[in-house]
Amino acid sequence: MAGVGRQRHGTCESGGYMGGLTEDPAFLATTFVVIDFEATTPKGYPAQPIEVAALALRYEDGTWTEVGKSASLIRPPAFAPVTPAVTAQTGLTPKQVGQAPTAAEALGALDRRFAPDKQYLLVAQHAATEANIIHNQREHCPALARIDLLDTIPLAKYVAPGLPNHKLDTLLAHFAIKQPADRHRAYADVDVTAQVFVRLVSAADDQLSDLAALVKIAGRTAKCNMPAQEELFDT
């Protein structure tokens, strides 16, 4: 993500030598963008975003560095209002999102922060959710929609297979990461997911030789990058 000054990301900082993965040139050349959406799920329609947050991280000089961040509420379409159940989970109300940017405006602004000459991977907890929302909104964020993803769940299963499950709250407890007060808001979830991701990479570092090995375990191809299915029969 371009246009944001660099700073050390205190909650994600990890000093010292970490091993093979973090010495791989492809890993070092990649900006990892942790992303999260909050959404409504109207009957008969795909999930509609009402909030998005992203936190961009690079591994540089033996530590993680924050190189960009973004957060925005999103005004949902009329067919996808914020319901009491959504408010109960996220704390967001219809009034809060009613004056927010549209998906086209919010996601368009986020999309423009991805530099065409940089290498990115998105990072998400249960990345299928984010992948589907991004794909369904791809007309507003074409650059974002072509970035492949890493899912923290299969990476966590690889690193800590003995856990009862690999939900975000379980991983926070496992790594002794404090629960945010506003859990289920997009930026709070992005922040703790980033902390989990950093710890997972550290734990897997001596077991994985390079970025390709990480992608093999936790990668998810963006739907826009999947080959189009050929027609079975000529018309």
Topology record:
Blueprint lengths: L6 E2 L16 H4 L1 E11 L7 E13 L2 E11 L10 H7 L3 H5 L4 H9 L7 E6 L2 H10 L12 E3 H8 L8 H7 L11 H19 L6 H8 E2 L15
Parallel strand pairs: 2-5, 5-6
Antiparallel strand pairs: 1-4, 2-3, 3-4, 6-7
Overview of this protein structure:
- The chain is of the alpha/beta class and 235 residues long.
- The chain has one domain: Ribonuclease H-like superfamily/Ribonuclease H (Nucleotidyltransferase, domain 5, 2-Layer Sandwich).
- The chain is built from nine helices and seven strands.
- Strands 1-4-3-2-5-6-7 form a seven-stranded mixed beta sheet.
Q: Average pLDDT across residues?
A: 91
* CATH topology name: Nucleotidyltransferase, domain 5
Number of strands: 7
Count of individual helical segments = 9
Oligomer: single chain
The name of the CATH architecture is 2-Layer Sandwich
Give the tally of structural domains.
1
The description of the largest β-sheet is: 7 strands, mixed
Helix content: 25-40%
CATH hierarchy, class: Alpha Beta
What is the straight-line distance between the termini?
Answer: 44 Å
Q: What are the defining features of this structure?
A:
Nucleotidyltransferase, domain 5, single chain, 235 residues, globular, 7-stranded mixed sheet
Give a brief rundown of this model.
The protein has helices at 25-28, 84-90, 94-98, 103-111, 127-136, 152-159, 168-174, 186-204, 211-218; strands spanning 7-8, 30-40, 48-60, 63-73, 119-124, 149-151, 219-220. The protein is of the alpha/beta class and 235 residues long. 40% of the residues are buried.
